[in-house]
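Problem statement: downstream parser choked on a complex file, so we are re-checking the raw output for the heme C run. The parser issue turned out to be on our end (a line-ending mismatch), but while we're here, posting the original submission so the record is complete.
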Amino acid sequence: MKKLFFPFIFLILSLIYTGCYYDSNEALFGKPDSAAVVCDTTVTNFTAQVKPILQSYCYSCHANAYAAGSGSGIKLENYADVKIYADNGKLMGSIQHLSGYSAMPKGGGSLSSCDIKIIKSWITRGKLNN
Ligand code: HEC
């Protein structure tokens, strides 16, 4: 029985160790989520939930100050401007890389699946201005 004690302890310890292995969102999905690690899709808030994503990945070209020079005149800083592209389908089309739309963020891969879900959820929940 004593002979089995150490292998047994070793087995338990290695199970505990591998059980704690943490898959980071960044490693799994590319770009890190701007929101929490748990993907919250009950999104109704433009300022707190949608805007930070646009700020991180889109404002380098689509902020009011840069839109004319780098963003083809498309502004995504103010609610009213974002709503135009949410309404005409171009916002979702571009971040989902659908055919017929210009894939965004331009030259920068894709948003994380959680960030895409957050924007989609805000749209389906009424595109609130808050
Ligand atoms: C490097 C600059 C750059 C970045 C970053 C960028 N865009 Fe764009 N975006 C452009 C340009 C330039 C166009 C004009 C179309 C083209 O050249 O592909 C455009 C076009 C668009 C369009 C219109 C698409 C269409 O098919 O008509 C939308 C919507 C858009 N961008 C949203 C976004 C969003 C959302 C992000 C962030 C996730 C983003 N863009 C990031 C430069 C950028």
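For whoever reads this later: The radius of gyration is 21 Å.
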